[in-house]
């Protein structure tokens, strides 16, 4: 079967470790709401989170270099 999608095949095949997200991290994923979008984050340590995914309908949010997956952000 051929899938025409922009999603990485490892996400489709349920292999979370291939995207820098270990199986232990999957249970710790949290969704936080920012200004007008949501971020799926993984806690690294107290107050520090790593962005796993952006959830937004605004295409410009995806172009923001501060919000790219893998970036670490501080949240209060």
What would you note in describing this structure?
It is a single chain. The chain is an alpha+beta fold. The protein has one domain (9-74). 17% of the residues lie in helices and 30% in strands. It has three helices and four strands. It has helices at 9-12, 23-26, 59-63, and strands at 30-33, 38-45, 48-55, 72-74. The protein has a four-stranded antiparallel sheet with strand order 1-2-3-4, with no helix packed on it. A hairpin with a 4-residue loop joins β1 and β2 (38-45). The longest helix is centred in the C-terminal third of the chain and has 5 residues, at 59-63. The radius of gyration is 13 Å and the shape is globular. The model has no long low-confidence stretch (mean pLDDT 82).
What structural keywords apply?
76 residues, alpha+beta, four-stranded antiparallel beta sheet, 3 helices, globular
Strand and helix map with partners:
Layout: H1 9-12, H2 23-26, E1 30-33, E2 38-45, E3 48-55, H3 59-63, E4 72-74
Antiparallel strand pairs: 1-2, 2-3, 3-4
Helix content: 10-25%
Which structural class fits the helix and strand makeup? Answer: alpha+beta
Biggest β-sheet: count, sense, barrel? 4 strands, antiparallel
Intertermini distance: 45 Å
Q: Tally the beta strands.
A: 4
Strand order of the largest sheet: 1-2-3-4
**Average of pLDDT:** 82
Overall 3D form: globular
Counted up, domains total 1
- Number of alpha- plus pi-helical segments: 3
| Oligomeric status | single chain
Beta percentage is: 25-35%
Contiguous low-pLDDT stretches (5 residues minimum) are none
Element order, helices and strands?
HHEEEHE
The Rg value, from CA coordinates, equals 13 Å
């Amino acid at each position: 079967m051929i899938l025409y999608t922009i999603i990485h095949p490892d996400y489709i095949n349920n292999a979370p470790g291939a995207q820098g997200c270990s199986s232990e991290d999957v249970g710790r994923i949290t969704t936080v709401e920012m200004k007008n979008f949501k971020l799926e984050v993984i806690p690294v340590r107290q107050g520090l989170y790593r962005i796993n995914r952006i959830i937004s309908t605004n295409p410009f949010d995806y172009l923001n270099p501060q919000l790219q997956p893998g970036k670490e952000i501080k949240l209060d």
